[in-house]
Amino acid sequence: MIPELGHFALVLAFVIALVQAVVPLLGAHRNRLALMAVGRPAALGQFLFTGFSFACLTWAFVANDFSVEYVAMHSNTATPLIYRITAVWGSHEGSLLLWALTLSLWTVAVAVFSRNLPEAFVARVLGTLGWIAVGFLAFMLVTSNPFTRLIPGAAEGRDLNPLLQDPGMIIHPPLLYMGYVGFSVAFAFAIAALLTGRLDAAWARWSRPWTTAAWVFLTAGIALGSGWAYYELGWGGWWFWDPVENASFMPWLLGTALIHSLAVTEKRGAFRSWTVLLAIGAFSLSLLGTFLVRSGVLTSVHAFATDPRRGLFILAFLVAVIGVSLLLYAWRAPKLAGGGSFAFVSRDTALLGNNVLLSVVSASVLLGTLYPLFLDALGLGKLSVGPPYFEAVFVPLMTPVVVLMMFGPFLRWKGDELMPALRRVAPAFVASILIGLGIALAVGHVTWRTVLGLALAAWVVLASLQLLAARLKERAGASATSRLATIPAAWWGMWLAHLGVGVFIIGVTMVGSLENNLDVKMKEGERVEFSGYTLLFRGVRDAPGPNFAAARANLELFRGEVDLGTLQPEKRIYLAQQMPMTEAALDVGLFRDVYVSLGEQLEDGSWIVSLHYKPFISWIWAGCVLMALGGILAAADRRYRRLAERRLPAAAVQAA
Amino acid sequence: MKARSKRLILVGTGVVLFGAAVALVLSAFQQNLVFFHTPTEVVEGKAPLGKTFRIGGMVEEGSIRRDADGITVRFAITDTAKVIPVSYQGSLPDLFKEGKGAVVQGSLGPDGLFRASEVLAKHDENYMPPEAAHAVAEAHKAAATLKQ
After folding, report:
1. Which residues does the record give as heme binding sites (chain B) (predicted)?
2. Which of A376, A392, A580 sits opposite B95 (nearest CB)?
3. Under an 8 A CB cutoff, do B9 and A344 touch?
4. How far apart are CA A129 and CA A40, in angstroms?
């Protein structure tokens, strides 16, 4: 009964989404307030019914209702409760439901926090979001209903893919979807602005906190996914340039360009049509990401089901979204007045350069991800594009982005003198090259990549400190605390996020340069020396789990004579599908991880053990955390809220 | 400098830099494509010697053997028509099994042994790497054509 209620709620959500898509847009077009006012309650209704539907599916998992096909395929009575709940988004149908729920959540947030925006604009934003919801809900109802019954019902479920039975599964997909889907808000704002024909600084100011919030979620989601892959997949890599990772990385790159371009549009009124194009692009790539990950076209952990109808539907949807928005863009954008002019040496130019480069990187990732699929689809042969391509492209293109990132904030808007600007950054620049060379020599690994990475990171840190010092000097005379207090949150956000890039580069460079791997055959009581550590193999014991049987190894880790504790990597067999799984064990540290995973057992009773030494790998996640924190600070800047307070009395007067 | 010539310089620099970036991307792309071959194609000599490529197929029953060092593993990949011997160092993916689909990436030595640097297996019990399925399907197709 409850699954049927969930299905019915989904149908109702679809109907409400249709109303939300049509009525407010019509109202905005005809200038009828009553029609426009339908948007907010419709958004709320759509959220409630989608939420109810989601709760019904969750209940089916919790109650082990194996008469629902989706539950029977992805859960089991022995699956721990938390993974029965996360199994809701463990595969195609449920993750679409999560997508729809996330979209309705963002829509309600827009409806609630947009009281200070013009009604016609809000109506257009909600209408656009309504159309996206219509597309996704229709997709689910037509091709991917999670509530389909299995007749007769199964006695026992097949269990969730063991790779997904991990704490990472609880938080990674929801965060990632908040990011993906969050760009739909930036997209809807851009479409609403195109429909209004008013793309001005005010539009950029309204759009900025939303875009930054989505970007924060996406950053956190990608970082978490990377960390999860690192400890779960058992071979110690943190980024594989796997198409699924690329699918989330492309919108991130374009989203990063978008938040910078929005800054220029807000401050200077420039780059307007470019900003709109980026908003369309970032959301289109999010949709493409969903298509890539969830239609089964990829050889990947994430693509379980293969059903060409689904792929076709998303492809048609994608073409419709991109086509309609580009048509609208082509129709409206030429009417936009150009922004303010700026000189060659200016912050505007630096940001333009950053935008172009990020877009090129995004396009090159797209090329490497889609080209094999295209060739395959056209029957022209099978090939793959591996990590070497992405690395060969990424490093040379992102290096100038980082240079511009540290040079740009020292330049004034509109125009600046080149020589004084260069003189400002020169000392830190020279110092960082020396630091990069010095550290590379000290760790005994002098390659151009190591030196480049360390020098860039050093420059980010030095230039950030210099920027802070310059900012504090601006109000000479005031006390230090009041000077710190007057710096707006948005500035701190920028500063912290940029510093995060530096920390991230340190991590990537050190892991890439100094990591060490070793596969050894070990017997009980044997020792092995590895990267300055000693590991003592204490043998393997049986360790039964709730829905798996495991062989658990005990390895004692020593640094010299100091005992650093026991590492317990496991080899598990998940019982429902007899599927083997490797569970690595890590000794995590600020400056290095020691990572151990258990291979297979050999005929003579010894085991193959994979050892990994990962210097500074935590700095990669720390950098991402700083970037996300920076984004939170920037989105929470009082400026955006002050605007709301100032507008409110005026609106009240109008209403009266 | 006049505003117009300034803009020309700006646009010109932009175009040149953009062109350089595109050239970089395309040349990196050309150099790093990894082609895929079926075991039959490899036996027919269609795969390049000494260059990295991929082979997909089934792991032949009874072919997995460990060398005395315990680290080097040897097995054979087949599309049911032809068989390619493979050697690999390190631990194998969890789902690597005899009689199941797998894809190996590496290069072919003059001795006919494929030295794999990467071994990919399917991700769950129901799922076969598309390349492996493709190789077997091609071999069956070829066999069917021969019979006619």
Report:
1. 123, 127
2. A580
3. yes
4. 12
* A154 & A190 share domain: no
Same domain, A24 and A132: yes
- Whether B44 and B22 map to the same domain: the answer is no
Contact A388 B70 (CB under 8 A): no
Nearest CA in chain B to A571: B94
Q: Give chain A positions within 8 Å (CB) of B126.
A: 304
Q: Which runs of E-coded beta strand occur in chain B?
A: 33-37, 53-59, 65-66, 72-78, 83-89, 101-108, 114-121
Tokens of A298: 């990829």
**pTM reported for the whole predicted model:** 0.92
Q: B142 and B93 in one domain?
A: yes
Q: Kindly calculate the radius of gyration of chain A based on its CA atoms and give it in whole angstroms.
A: 27
B31 → chain A, closest CA residue: A389
Q: What angle do CA A609, A612, A618 make, to 5 degrees?
A: 140
Question: Residues A57, A180: one domain?
Answer: no
- Residue A108 in any domain: the answer is yes
**Nearest C-alpha in B relative to A604:** B70
- Sequential DSSP letters for A63-102: TT-TTBHHHHHH--TTS-HHHHHHGGGSSHHHHHHHHHHH
CATH of the domain at B141: 2.40.50.140
> Which residues are registered as beta bridge partners of B116?
B88, B106
Q: Report ipTM (2 d.p.).
A: 0.82
Structural domain that includes position A131: 1-165
* Tokens standing for residue A330: 């082509």
Tell me which residues of chain B, numbers 58 to 97, contact chain A at a CB-CB cutoff of 8 Å.
Answer: 66, 69-71, 89-92, 94-95
Residue A110 CA to residue A46 CA, distance in Å, equals 13
The identity of residue A69, as a single letter, is E
Phi-psi region of A541 (alpha: psi -120 to 50; beta: other; left: phi over 0): beta
10-residue block means of pLDDT along chain A (656 residues)?
A: 95 97 95 94 97 97 94 91 93 90 97 91 96 95 91 86 86 93 96 87 91 97 93 84 90 96 89 91 91 62 53 83 93 73 84 92 93 78 85 93 92 87 91 96 92 96 93 77 85 96 96 92 92 94 91 94 93 86 92 92 88 95 97 89 52 39
Q: Where is A583: in which H helix or E strand? A: strand A579-583
Domain count, chain B: 2
A52 and A130, same domain (yes or no): yes
